[in-house]
Amino acid sequence: xxxxAWLKIALPTVVAVLALILIASLMHSMxxxxxxxxxxxxxxEEGCRMIDLGTLGGSMSAAFxxxxxxxxxxxxxxxxxxxxxxxxxxxxxxxDLGTLGGTASRAWAINSAGQVVGESTLAQSTGQHAFLYTDGEMKDLGTLGGTSSSARDINDLGQVVGESQIAGDMEMHAFLFTNGQMKDLGTLGGTxxxxxxxxxxxxxxxxxxVADGRTNHAFLRRNSVMxDLGTLGGTxxxxxxINNIGMxxxxxxxxxxxxxxxxLLADGSMQDIGTxxxxxxAAGDINGDGVVVGGAGLSDNNSNHAFLSHKGGRxxDLGTLGGxxxxxxxxxxxxxVGISKTIQRSGKAGPxxxxxxxxxxxxx
Length: 364
Known about the structure:
- It is a single chain.
- The longest helix is centred in the N-terminal third of the chain and has 8 residues, at 38-45.
- Mean pLDDT is 88; it is low at 5-38.
- A hairpin with a 5-residue loop joins β23 (291-298) and β24.
- The protein has one helix and 28 strands.
- The protein has one domain (13-359): Peptidase/esterase 'gauge' domain (Methylamine Dehydrogenase, Chain H, 7 Propeller), CATH 2.130.10.
- The protein has one helix spanning 38-45, and strands at residues 48-52, 57-66, 72-78, 84-90, 93-98, 101-110, 116-122, 128-134, 137-140, 145-154, 160-166, 172-178, 181-186, 189-198, 204-210, 216-222, 225-230, 233-242, 248-254, 260-266, 269-272, 277-286, 291-298, 304-310, 316-317, 322-330, 336-343, 349-359.
- The protein has 364 residues and is mostly beta strands.
- It has a four-stranded antiparallel sheet with strand order 1-28-27-26. It has a four-stranded antiparallel sheet with strand order 2-3-4-5, with no helix packed on it. The chain has a four-stranded antiparallel sheet with strand order 6-7-8-9, with no helix packed on it.
């Protein structure tokens, strides 16, 4: 269970080590007393459209985060589909961020200053390292003593979170990188943890194996204490993002482990966000106003579409570029990014592309 493990994409062997992603299993449940922001819903239904952000010359791209300046980060196949590189999408241009010397890199998050974090393969190593891209340079953040690491989020103070193998490579632990040092955040009792999100207060969310060694639970780390956030009644959960007022989003199995559902945790209560009529949903991000985005199953139980939901209220279908879609990032202007399957002119399924969902030119 992981926010970027939705659907595996076949990539050239040169980038096979990073050839995973997109669009994990998605989920169900209806909100009994939905509350929603009419202005957000109106924006979703009128005057907004999903825009293909293009690529670095290859066939596929993906977008995972957007800051309030409209800078979008993700990754793309390069010309000839020869490599997979982290990139920035902005104003119709796609900028290659390069690598740490290897053949592949991916960007997961960007802060208000335009600092980007992600992971990259190395020149002479089978592993990958977390990176921070700032001032035009990709910097290696190292590891907790093991072979590989990955950076998942960055706040406006430049604090970075992610996961790293520890010495011996037998365990993977969540980390916080601050003041030039990578700190092990520990686990909920198991051998694995991942930090997925951090807000400007330094509060961290993610997921960890618990003491039984078999199940993951979402966690919140506040004031140096890692707290188990529980589940929606099932055995496993994961938290992916936290906003500056402490609202947390993620996904969890429901009772009986029959499906994964998106959740919003606010004021100590974990709420099931619901679906677009199908059996599954997953949340990807939340902005400062509590607008949640992600992906959800439709009533046919065969399709998944990107959605938005204001504070866990009624889901709004954001549509697609032709096939399945999922939203991963939202800024405070309610501009949304993610990934969607495309459709070729022949009617056949096309490649996945990064998208921006935003007001069309001239609309309000």
